[in-house]
Design brief:
Number of strands: 17
Order of helices and strands: EHHEEHHEHEHEHEHEHEEHEEEEHHEEEH
Oligomer: single chain
Helix content: 25-40%
Structural class: alpha/beta
Distance between the termini: 56 Å
Mean pLDDT: 89
Number of helices: 13
Shape: globular
Low-confidence stretches: none
């Protein structure tokens, strides 16, 4: 039996009540103060992960009691120390590998320091997230009748580890790329590197409003706390793959735009009869790709540091995708705001787009 750990944290205060219902009756400020002082803890045990090759694995969700806002605003050293403590908790439970979930994967040097302080390997899960985001985007484009090679593709958070790897892989087959991030200097460096390596001359911006109306396809993977995308600026018929958690696309898009297809990025089916014993809003046997990467590495007995740092190795993205297929992991049906998208919905959306 292979064993793994995966570190989770509340994206926002409301998520704390998923584990501790008493928090429904406490003010937000008090909850933040309390969880900041709390030690990491076992959230649940994960059982029933079984590869199509016959290998089995079990694991644990380990809670790092800090919200997204706290992780971004508290001193980096303090946050890293708390994540390391969560990793040590995973070690003590018997994990041979630990994954960093959500904002724990973007702190400081993106897992490198944490890996040095633990006796087990570490991954952010970002490589498989990239692979599934691109796969899901291609599927959504096919459903909407968009040809990627002829479309303007905007990557938001392009200089982050997920965004950068998406850019590198997309540049192999697509030339109309647009890159958005917070720092212009980093964007210029990435664009220059892209031109040398693939011949693609990408447009860049630090102001989303400049490029959103031009984008046919958007992959967004920022580390922002609040929704970034002004849904009123989205092009009719656009496909948006939202990899970010918290989301970069506001939930209001479903109410205000029936001509735009927004999909949740990085959601996969896990082989076996999996019991997560923790409710995070997904149907049975499905998980985020970053969680799945940790499972895949364990099932493959590939106990080594993976997907660390600000620049992912594209070869590792391809490798983890191949391993996923071998073990029976696959892209889940397309979902939007945690709800399955039907073919009828997409057909109706296409009719609306074509009639405008």
């Amino acid at each position: 039996m292979e064993r793994f750990g995966f570190i989770v944290h509340p994206l926002q205060i409301a998520d704390v009540a998923r584990k501790f219902s008493v928090c429904n009756f406490l003010p937000d400020g008090l909850i933040e103060s309390l969880i900041k002082m709390a030690p990491p803890f076992e959230v649940s045990k994960i059982t029933g992960v079984k590869s199509e090759l016959g290998v089995e694995a079990e694991g644990w969700f380990i809670g790092c009691p800090l919200t997204s806002r706290q992780i971004l605003e508290l001193p980096t050293e303090e946050v890293v120390e708390k994540i390391i403590a969560a990793g040590i908790k995973a070690q003590k439970l018997g994990a041979k590998l630990v994954g960093l979930g959500a904002f724990t994967s973007i702190v400081g040097d993106k897992g490198i320091t944490i890996a040095k302080e633990l006796d087990i390997p570490v991954t952010t899960g970002n490589s498989y997230t990239v692979a599934t985001a691109i796969e899901g985007t291609k599927l959504a484009c096919d459903m909407m009748g968009l040809e990627m090679k002829r479309s303007n593709i905007l990557i938001i958070g392009a200089t982050g580890s997920i965004g950068r790897a998406c850019v590198q892989l997309l540049a192999q087959d697509n030339k109309y790329l647009m890159l958005a991030a917070r720092r212009e200097e980093n964007l210029r460096k990435l664009a220059a590197k892209l031109k040398v390596e693939s011949g693609v001359e990408a447009l860049i911006t630090t102001n989303l409003e400049e490029l959103l109306p031009q984008a046919d396809i958007i992959i967004t993977a920022s580390s922002a706390i609040e929704s970034l995308i002004d849904i009123n600026l989205l092009k009719s018929g656009a496909v948006v793959c939202d990899v970010a958690r918290p989301r970069d696309v506001a939930r209001q898009v479903k109410l205000q735009r029936n001509d735009v297809l927004v999909i949740d990025g990085g959601i996969v089916e896990v082989p076996g009869q999996v019991e997560f014993n923790f409710e995070f809003g997904f149907p049975p046997n499905t998980a985020y790709a970053c969680m799945a990467e940790t499972m895949i590495l364990a099932l493959s007995k590939k106990y080594e540091n993976y997907s660390l740092g600000s620049e992912l190795d594209v070869e590792k993205v391809l490798t983890i995708s191949q391993l996923a297929t071998e073990h029976g992991f696959k892209l889940a049906s397309l979902r939007s705001m945690e709800r399955e998208i039907s073919l009828q919905e997409v057909s109706r959306m296409r009719r609306i787009v074509n009639s405008t």
